[in-house]
Design brief:
Elements: E1 4-8, H1 15-39, E2 44-51, H2 54-62, E3 71-72, E4 75-76, E5 79-83, E6 91-96, H3 104-131, H4 144-168, E7 173-178, E8 181-186, H5 187-207, H6 210-219, H7 225-249, H8 258-265, H9 267-284, H10 296-317, E9 320-324, E10 330-334
Parallel strand pairs: 1-2, 2-6
Antiparallel strand pairs: 3-4, 5-6, 7-8, 9-10
The structure holds zinc ion (ZN).
């Protein structure tokens, strides 16, 4: 039974993207329907719109004006999955056509990944709608402790969506020209190489020493507490999401590729990302493949609980402990952040 239906509703002049999407829809519907069956989802209509006006489309749907930016740690937003308006079930995937510029092969690799990833998000969101969200989870967090649970769920969602995407569209062999040498590899391996190439630089730019320096700037009274806290909430989440995509993509590569070791040995990985994944990986590694969405509610609750502890541990590594006061206010103790040389980690 076709439980998931995908309808194209594009508003783009980018005909190649439209053609590539059209050729993927049938497979996406069939594979997503199989996952929906194991997840207890009876019907899920998804509309996919490739748009040339991504930012204003997102703002229109969310009732924002001028607040939305497509810039994220590690690149621009290529797509987003939103609730359909009016309907109970149903999702709208907006794909940002401007994120797919440049050489065709790379655009093709990224578009296939994006389509699979966003359809996976739609399935995950629908599971949460049907089965209920984890106890303690706030999808629109205002207070600091709620942002920790929100980060845990967001990171786990990104990793699972990447893993599910691998099953939603089969790997295809592609040939690319790499500085005069012709290389044949699967789209997944190419995506992994793409992620690997950017990872060390992203770690340098956004994770270490960036997160640590944010705390040090507060300790030296260069910024106030609110500025530090806001920067850390988004910085930690950005770093972990970057790590989630990297971790899923690089499962397609051998761990002794030189650059994989470089990423593993980076202080940002050793201080923050690796300890986080050591905790969360046992909960997430089983959630790929055909039955990944089975027993969703329990698995989601575990990811929320374990992930929240793992995010709290990153704050602690950054020298910050939370104390919940009687009136539910959160007191923050800010001490010296751990570092590799200091022996405090
Ligand atoms: Zn995502």
């Amino acid at each position: 039974m076709q439980r998931v239906t995908i309808t194209p509703v594009h508003t783009t002049a980018h005909a190649t993207l439209v053609d590539w999407t059209a050729s993927a829809i049938e497979t996406l519907q069939v594979e997503a329907s199989k996952l929906a069956a194991t997840a207890g989802i009876s019907t899920l209509p998804i509309a996919i719109r490739i748009t040339d006006r991504f930012t204003s489309d997102v703002e229109d749907r969310r009732g924002l004006s001028g607040d939305y930016t497509t810039e994220r740690v590690g690149g621009v937003v290529a797509a987003i999955a939103l609730k359909s308006q009016g309907a109970e079930a149903g999702r709208l995937v907006l794909v940002n056509s401007t994120a797919f510029e440049g050489q065709d092969t790379w655009s093709f690799v990224r578009l296939r990944y994006t389509l699979g990833h966003e359809v996976a998000h739609c399935l995950i969101d629908e599971c949460r709608r049907v089965h209920g969200a984890p106890t303690g989870y706030d999808p629109t967090p205002v207070n600091l402790l709620d942002t920790i649970g929100y980060t845990a769920v967001s990171v786990s969602d990104e990793f699972i969506a990447d893993e599910l995407a691998k099953g939603l569209l089969p790997a295809v062999n592609l040939t690319i020209d790499d500085e005069g040498v012709s290389i044949t590899a699967t789209d997944r391996a190419l995506l992994a190489v793409d992620r690997l190439n950017g990872m060390t630089e992203d770690l340098d730019l956004h994770v270490y020493p960036g997160l640590r320096n944010t705390v040090e700037r507060y300790r030296r009274s260069i910024v106030d507490l609110d500025t530090m806290t806001t920067a850390l909430v988004s910085g930690i989440q950005g770093a972990l999401i970057l790590g989630a995509h990297y971790r899923s993509a690089c499962r397609e590569l051998s761990p002794d590729v030189g650059d994989v070791r470089k990423v593993d040995e980076h202080p940002g990985t050793r201080l923050y990302l690796a300890p986080f994944w050591a905790r969360l990986a046992p909960c997430l590694d089983s959630r790929s493949g055909a039955r990944a969405l089975g027993d969703f509610k329990n698995a989601d609750q575990t990811a929320f609980n374990v992930g929240s502890d793992a995010v709290t541990e990153i704050w602690r590594t950054l020298g910050i402990r939370f104390e919940l006061l009687e009136d539910d206010a959160v007191h923050m103790h800010v001490e010296e952040p751990a570092d590799l040389q200091s022996g405090t980690c």
